[in-house]
Structure formats: C-alpha cells, structure tokens
Write a structure and sequence with these properties.
Largest sheet of chain B: 9 strands, mixed
Strand content of chain B: 25-35%
Number of strands of chain A: 18
CATH architecture of chain B: 3-Layer(aba) Sandwich
Number of helices of chain B: 6
Oligomer: heterodimer
Helix content of chain A: 25-40%
CATH class of chain B: Alpha Beta
Strand order of the largest sheet of chain B: 9-8-7-10-6-1-4-5-11
Radius of gyration of chain B: 21 Å
Number of domains of chain A: 2
Order of helices and strands of chain A: EEEHEHEHHEHEEEEEEHEEHEHEHEHEH
Distance between the termini of chain B: 55 Å
Structural class of chain B: alpha/beta
Largest interface: A-B, 98 and 84 residues
Structural class of chain A: alpha/beta
Strand order of the largest sheet of chain A: 7-11-6-1-4-5-12
Number of strands of chain B: 13
Radius of gyration of chain A: 22 Å
Number of domains of chain B: 1
Largest sheet of chain A: 7 strands, parallel
Chain lengths: 334, 249
C-alpha cells in the first residue's frame, strides 16, 4: 500500500506558513488518489506546537529530534545538517512504504529534496505549481524559463519526490485529531556519517522579509535614480508589511543586495500583490514576477513593458506618487 | 588542486520563449545560446581556486554538441580541459544528467566540484545536490562565499532573509549564487588560448529518465489592466481598487 509523506518545516520550533500549504496539498493528493498520508517534522517543537497541524486535517505526525545525535557527534559548533534531515526522511519513507514525498520549495526544502530523491531512487519534480488530475494524477505543472512558460511533467515511476512553490497552494483548515508519534535517529539508522556539510551558524537580518516568502512585494528599479532614494520603496513596503525587491539593473549597479533581485537570474516570485516602482519591465524581470496575482506598475514611461502585465498602473513620477501612496495606505490601515 | 566545474548552455535571458512544434520544448529558431549565467560564477570561483592553490580546472557538460558552447566559455575564463558527455537529444531529466555527471567526476576524483546553483532554463535547482549524493560527497547549494584552508571548507549559503555558515571537509560540491565573485571578462589572449584547449567526448552511462515533459504552454495572457495617467492624483482610486476590487490590502 503506497502512501504520501509530507515534510513540515519549522523555524525556531514553530511551523512556517509554507508547511501548512504543503500539508494541505498532501491532504488533497491523498483524497484524490485514495492514499494514506502522514507528516514528518524534524525539530524540538512542543506537543502544543505539533498539535497545530490538527487544524489542517493531518491524521498522523511523526516527530523527530536530532539533538541527541548532534550532541553525540562531538562537533561542538553544530546546529543542524541538511544531510541528516535528508537521510532521516529517506530512511523513514523507505522503512514505512511512503512513495510520494512532498516538500515546500523553500531554502531548506530545495537543499534536502534532491538528496532524498537520489537516496530513495525517486523521480523528482521541483517547484510544482499545480497537480493535474484526470481520474488519477497525470502530471505536475511547473514553470520553466523563470515562468516564461509552463511544463507538464509526468513521473515515469511510482516513487516521486515533489517540491511545491511557496505561496501557490492554499493552506486549507480541516479539523482532525492528529496522533503524534516521536521517532528517534537510532530507529532510522541515522549516524553522524550522514551529516555531510553541517551548519555552524545562522544569521537572519532582523525582521527582513524575503521576497520568496512574501505575500506583498514592493520592487524598485532604475527609475529610483540612486540607492539613496530606495527609502521611498522601503516606506511603502513598511506600511504594507511587504518585502522589498529590486530589478537586475539596480542590483548589478550595487544599489540593492542580490538577495532582493526578482527575475530570471534572481528570484521567481508569486505574491498576492507586486508593486513595480520605476521598473520598465525587461523580459527577464517580467519572467520572474508575472505570475503574481495582482501587479501594480508605477512608471513615467507610458510605453514601458511593465504596463502590459499590470492589473493596475499609474503613468507618472515615482518620486511624487510613492509618498502619496504610502500616506494613503497608512490612513487606510490607521 | 583538482577542480571540476559543471556548466550548461541555455537560451539568453532576453529570449522571448515560443513553444516548439512538439509542444514539449521551446522553438529554438533565432534563440541565442549562452553559458548559464550562474555557471559563470562557478567557473570564476574554480579559476580563482586554481590561481591561489595551483592545479587544474576541468569543465564538464552533459548535452548535445551545443553544450560545447558552455565549455568554450569556461576555457576563455581559464579552465584547462573539457569533457562533453554527449547525449543524442535534449530530453533528459535532471536525475539522468546528475547520474552521468557523477560517473565522470568520480573518475577524476577532484578536491572541489563547482556548479551554478541552477540553470535558467528549467530552474530545477536540483542537479548540484543530486550529483553530490551520487558521489557521496558533502554539498552546499546557493553559496555566496567559499573559503578553503587545506582540507577544510567554510561556506556561506543564502537563505530567506539571511545566511547559514557551513563547514565541510574536502572534497566538497558547491553550487554558486550571484554575489560570490565577479566573473571576469575574457581578454583577447585568453580567447586565443582557449581555441587549442581539448574537449573530450564521452558516451552517457545511463539515459533512462524518471520523468518526461508531456506538454509545454505559455502563461495565459492577462486582459489589459486599468492604467491611469494623472500621476499622484490617481493614487486614491488605485488604493480603492486594491482594497475593493483586488482585495489585496
């Protein structure tokens, strides 16, 4: 009997919102295919935290802590290792007959899913945005060429590893009583030999929201004329609770960090709202953001290609429009 | 130091994609193919490692004859030798590509293997980690800084809103992200020198893909948007639409 296993990611022992998306997608697949499903999570989350999965209809949660293994390793500065995550998930899936393994395509998911695919000898479909059914599961839809087109990928074997693009699948509340079972590294046969590279330190800029995870993004381009003017973009992002993005031109010019770059050689994003400020819309930028649900363009050039993908736009000067827009939204949120 | 750098050849990022007649791949007519932009960071890092530690840089690619373009660019930037694992067509999935790369890399037994973190055609972000797993070597993808001291590597990896610091023993597999270095522009001398560098051709060891592309489509184009022309005076109407029509704020 084949089954579906979903990896639910936590940060500081609290589930990330992407975890609920992939859990809900796992439930959807399990219902459509008539397969059992369960969740595996690797952390030191409290039982109360684990029970938040109740809300999403998870029948069974397997909770694994790798703390003991890490401390037994004798490596004094280890925080975690992607290798041990991949080895644990692979071993658990193989021992218990799970043939579809699902991840969110986050930094962590993308670092462990390919390893799991090789360890379990599975077909891998990365960055899926839709399941295509026709009675049974036919294929996975995923963007290619940074979203300039979509491909439909069909696994040729039963064993599948799939990662889901964040912010695309909906987290669906659906109460169930999750049974929680703790599992150990020993029971999975995981050793320090599985670590590979290990993480000794993590630093996350305080409060900085990443474009890849944000539901609203305010991006700036060359129309801002210089790095000193990006406070206009940041102020608007602040009132919206948005992440700040940037075009390749301003990243290449050194005005903004490369982690902010949206486009074919930066990040491909699908937020609910994307506000492009002073961005003309080069084809490689449009590729990275045109799957946003709503796009607002602000640009003084009426012929800028960004207006062709925009749902709403204002032709005009970003230096005049952005402060007014920020004030209006501040009033609204009052 | 023996350094392997894996490169791919992809349509330039300014390419307007059209779906080909088979509805499974793009129409390649008029498309300019270039070295995958992320691979330039990998080649630069490889050449810097050679410059600092001595040794050689071997460029490897999997694909048709066109994949030689990527290797030639690596030559111009300072790679010494090239290996093309020559496939009959381009319908191979990442699993197959990784397995083939690993089988050639294993023979070379390098100290460091470098990749671009992803290729900008299929954007899988999976080949570096899968190849490493076939080689049973430690690996880190999306790397913005690499320091090697003797047999120890200290690696910075970009994550959402920050970074991880990782440590590993050589040999190690690294996928490079923008920011790790500034790829050099080949000069005339290096371009001339690259012409005499050899590309060895190999046959694939495994050509059985685990996935296939059944269809390729362009995104549905949006209806024309509501575009206003009065500058800041239109802001209240924009805010109203975002609130009431789009319901996104």
């Amino acid at each position: 009997m084949s089954k579906i296993l979903v990896f639910a990611e936590t940060k500081d022992n609290v589930f990330k919102s992407n975890a609920f998306e992939v859990v809900s997608a796992g439930k959807l697949l399990s219902e459509k295919l008539g397969k059992e499903f369960a969740v595996i999570t690797i952390n030191d989350a409290s039982d109360d935290q684990l029970k938040t999965l109740n809300k999403f209809g998870v029948p069974k949660v397997y909770s694994l802590s790798l703390n003991d293994l890490n401390s037994k390793s004798g490596i004094s500065d280890i925080k975690y290792s992607h290798g041990s995550f991949a080895a644990a998930i692979s071993s658990f899936a193989k021992n218990n007959g799970y043939d579809i393994i699902m991840f969110s395509a986050t930094s962590l998911g993308k670092e462990i899913a390919p390893t799991v695919a090789v360890k379990t000898n599975s077909a891998i479909v990365p960055d899926c945005t839709e399941f295509i059914f026709d009675g049974s599961l036919v294929s996975f839809k995923r963007p290619a060429y940074a979203g300039k087109c979509y491909t439909f990928v069909k696994p040729e074997i039963e064993k599948i590893v799939v990662t889901l693009r964040p912010n695309v699948f909906k987290a669906v509340e659906n109460n169930a009583d999750s049974a929680i079972e703790k599992i150990t590294a020993d029971s999975l046969g995981i050793t320090t030999g599985d670590f590979g590279a290990y993480v000794s330190d993590v630093s996350v800029a305080g409060g900085k929201l990443d474009v890849a995870e944000a539901d609203i993004i305010v991006s700036g381009g060359r129309g801002l004329r210089g790095p000193e003017n990006f406070n206009l973009v940041e102020n608007l992002a602040a009132v919206l609770g948005a992440a700040t993005g940037a075009s390749r031109a301003v990243v290449d010019a050194g005005w903004r960090p490369h982690g902010d770059q949206v486009g074919q050689t930066g990040k491909t994003v699908s937020p609910g709202l994307y506000i492009a400020c002073g961005i003309s819309g080069a084809i490689q930028h449009l590729a990275g953001m045109s799957s946003s649900k709503f796009i607002v363009a602000i640009n003084k050039d009426k012929d800028a290609p960004i207006f062709q993908v925009a749902d709403y736009g204002i032709i005009g000067d970003v230096f005049e429009i952005l402060p007014v827009l920020t004030e209006e939204i501040k009033k609204l949120k009052g | 130091m023996k350094i392997v750098v894996c490169v791919s050849t992809v349509p330039d990022s300014t390419t307007k994609i059209k779906v080909g007649g088979n509805a499974k791949s793009i129409d390649e007519s008029g498309v300019t193919f270039i070295i995958n932009p992320y691979d330039e960071f990998a080649v630069e890092e490889a050449v810097q490692l050679k410059e600092n530690n001595g040794g050689e840089v071997i460029g490897i690619s999997f694909g048709t004859d066109r994949a030689k373009e990527g290797i030639k660019k690596a030559f111009q930037m300072g790679a010494d030798k090239g290996i093309l694992i020559k496939s009959a067509g381009s319908e191979f999935d990442s699993f197959t590509v990784s397995k083939n790369l690993a089988s050639v890399i294993k023979e070379i037994n390098p100290d460091v293997v470098l990749f671009g973190k992803q290729s900008i055609d299929f954007d899988g972000i999976i080949v570096p980690k899968m190849t490493a797993e076939f080689l049973n070597l430690p690996s880190v993808n999306v790397v913005t800084k690499l320091e090697i001291n003797d047999q120890d590597a200290v690696i910075e990896r970009e994550i959402e809103g920050g970074k991880e610091i990782l440590k590993a023993k050589l040999p190690v597999v690294i996928g490079t992200q923008k920011g790790i270095n500034n790829p050099r522009y080949p000069n005339l001398k290096s371009i001339m020198a690259s012409k005499s560098k050899p590309i060895e051709e190999r046959a694939p060891v495994d050509e059985l893909s685990k996935t296939s592309v059944t269809d390729m489509k362009l995104p549905e184009s949006k209806g024309s948007g509501k575009i206003f022309t009065n500058g800041a005076a239109d802001v209240p109407e924009l805010v109203r639409l975002l609130r009431e029509e789009a319901k996104v704020i």
